[in-house]
Design brief:
The chain is of the alpha+beta class. Helix content is 45%, strand content 22%. Among the domains are: 99 residues, no CATH class; 163 residues, Beta Barrel (Thrombin, subunit H), CATH 2.40.10.340. Keywords: Cell shape, Membrane, Transmembrane, Transmembrane helix. InterPro entries: Cell/Rod_1, Cell/Rod_MreC_2, MreC, MreC_beta-barrel_core. This is Cell shape-determining protein MreC.
Length: 375
Amino acid sequence: MEYSPPPLFKQGPSALARLVFFVVLALALLISDARFKTLEIVRGVLGAGLYPLQRAALVPRDIFMGAADLAVTSATLRQENDKLRTKDLQLSQQANTAAELAAENAHLRALLQLSQRSTTQSLPAEIQYDTRDPFTQKVVIGRGAQQGVQDGSPVVNEDGVIGQVTRVFPLQAEVTLLTDKDQAVPVQIVRTGLRSVIYGTPKGDTLDLRFVPISADVQTGDELVTSGLDGVYPPGLPVAKVVRVDKQADTAFARVICLPVAPVRGARQLLVLHYLNNVPPRPAEEPDAATTAKDAKAKKSGKPTDSKAAADKSAAKTAEKPAAAAKPAEKPTAAAKATEKPSAKATAAEKKAAAEKKPAADKSAKPQATPGAQP
């Protein structure tokens, strides 16, 4: 009787043969799917069929994460709501104070008959791209001369000064940022009113407040705003904040390091200001002392200067012509004067002789007596 194992314990191909078969099948599927995308449809069908199972398995996690987010969001919203209410109250108080100050300022200007010094117009713009030069802090905005952008206009955002327009094209404009090494802005310290000029640095991350004496009252944390004395920037725009003050005894000026208030590199939407300063022009400059002394010396020596010299020379030439014509007529007069000199001398001699003869005649006439006179 032939022995055969039951169907449950029948053995097929060997384990090694099955391993090789499935390895070859896997490689064939990988290659065909990578080269020819043959299993895209199968993968899509399997994904659609297994998606409900995946969502069902993730429900506990979603519930837990949703509850945690709800708690955190509620706490965050409460804190932000409290901060916004406090800030709203502060801003309302500042707005009321600003309205009162504006009304008082208008009343005082009307009382003193002073006109408004400045008017500022704004134009929104957006940064398009940076310039190609990596050693300069410049950007290009999408507004140009056709939209009213002018060369030298200040550029700001909601926090403070960003830079200044340095080149204008028909549809674009180039803005030099505040941190550029060649950019300078006249500023003043809010706390003390000290005026100076702030410059960018070669690194482009800080600002340098120059020409500050060592004895000046400058402290860390002081706010700097535009002074408005240059006629380019409106007064009162936030510029920077002092972060370090170095005072050395061997130098006349202190080194003041500042950080810009506005995010110079983080801003995307900007405002281009068109500042009109209604200040009368400067009077004509008077000549200095050196020029005045030179003109006085020229007049004293008889040497005419500038246009008056040419006019005087032409007048002198015109006057010399009749004088030259009159010179021949004057020669006989000089000769006559020369002949008159001997006759004048003879007349004087005759007068002297007559004076000598007169006493002699008086002596000879003295013995004579008048008729009827007694001896």
